[in-house]
C-alpha cells in the first residue's frame, strides 16, 4: 500500500470513529417535554413555571471515541476539519449531560452561538436582523395583500402532499410520512421517516415550506451522507452542521417562493425571545411575550418551550439553537452570492453531499479530488436546474455593488411625496 492509500485509509478511519461518536447525540429527542407538562401549565392558569425533568445522559462513549479519533489526527487542513467536528461532538455530548444547568447554556452558545454574535461583516448581528425584520413586517400591518386568509390545513392534508413530493424526488429511497400525536416541532425528518404533529395547524404555504425545508434539504443531505462510501461522518447531523443545514433549508423556502412574512416573523421572534431569556426573562415572561404577539395560548407555550428546553426556566440560560435559522439563512445567502460572483458554480452541488458546514467546503473539495467524497445523488430542484438560482444571484451581486444609501435616499424622497391614503 503506497503513502496515498495509507493516508486515505487513515482519513476514512477517523471519519468512521467520529460517526460512531455522533450516534449517542440525539439532542432534540433528549430535550423533549411530555404532554403532561403542558397540561399542568394550563391547569395552573399559566401562572407557574413548568416543572421539567430530563433523562440522564452519559457522555463517556462519545468522549472516548473522540479521543480515539484525535490520537490518529495530524496537522493537515483535513485533520483540522476532522478536529472541528470532534470538538462539536464533544460539546454536544457535554451539553446533553448538563441539562437544567447554567453549563447547558454555555455549551449551547459554543455550538449555536447567541443573538449578539456578529455575522461575517463583524458588525451586524442576528438580533439586529430580527429586530429589523420585526419593524419592517410591522409596517405592513394595514396592507391588503389581496389573498384570502390562510386556511388551517389538517396534518393529513400536509402528509399526503409530503408523501407525493418525497416519492417523486427520492423514488425507492423515499422516507415514510407519518402523523404522530407528540412532536417537538410541527414536523421533523430523518432519512427513513418524516413525522408531522397531529394537532398542528398548517397554512396554505406550510406544505411547500415543509417540502422544501424538510424533504429537499434535510432528507436529501441525510440520504446523500449515508451514501458516502468513505466519509461516514457526512451522514451525522451533529451540532456543528446545524447553522448551514437550517440556513440551506430556510433559503430553500426563500428561493422557491414558499416563505412568507408570518414565517419570517416567527423566526425573528425566536431570536428576540432567546435574547430575552439570556438577559434574565423567565418562562412566564417569554410565554406572555409570545402570547401578546400571536394571541394563541397553545402556540405561545410551544414557542416558549423551544427557547427553554434543556436550560433554566428561571431565565439566564436558554437553548440557543433557534437563533441559527435566520443566521444560517444569511450565511448561506452570502456564500451563494460569493459562489456566483467568483464564477464557482461548480461548488454548488458539493453543498449537498451530506451534513456539513459551509466552512468545510474547501476541505470537501479536496477530498472529492482524492476520491473520498462523492457529490450528492439527490439535489433540491432549484439546484438540479440552477438557471433561476444563478440568474437571481447574478442580479443580486450587481445590486450589492450599488450605492444603496444614495438609492434609498432618492426613493425615500419620492415616496414621501405620495400621500398615504390607501393600503
Shape: globular
Mean pLDDT: 93
Helix content: 55-70%
Radius of gyration using CA atoms only = 22 Å
Q: Which blocks of ≥5 consecutive residues have pLDDT under 50?
A: none
Sheet of most strands = 3 strands, mixed
Number of H- or I-type helical stretches? 18
Distance between the termini: 73 Å
- Please report the total strand number as a whole number: 3
Which percent range describes the beta-strand content?
under 5%
- Based on helices, strands and strand pairing, what is the structural class? mainly alpha
H/E order of the elements?
HHHHHHHHEEEHHHHHHHHHH
Numbering strands along the chain, what is their spatial order in the largest sheet? 1-3-2
Summarize the structure in words.
This protein has helices at 3-22, 27-30, 35-43, 60-70, 77-97, 102-112, 126-138, 155-170, 206-226, 242-255, 261-278, 283-294, 297-308, 324-341, 361-369, 381-384, 387-400, 404-416, and strands at 176-180, 187-189, 193-197. The protein is mainly alpha-helical and 423 residues long. Strands 1-3-2 form a 3-stranded mixed β-sheet, covered by helices on one side. Strand 2 (187-189) and strand 3 form a beta hairpin. The longest helix is centred in the first third of the chain and has 21 residues, at 77-97. It is globular, with a radius of gyration of 22 Å. The termini are far apart. The model has no long low-confidence stretch (mean pLDDT 93).
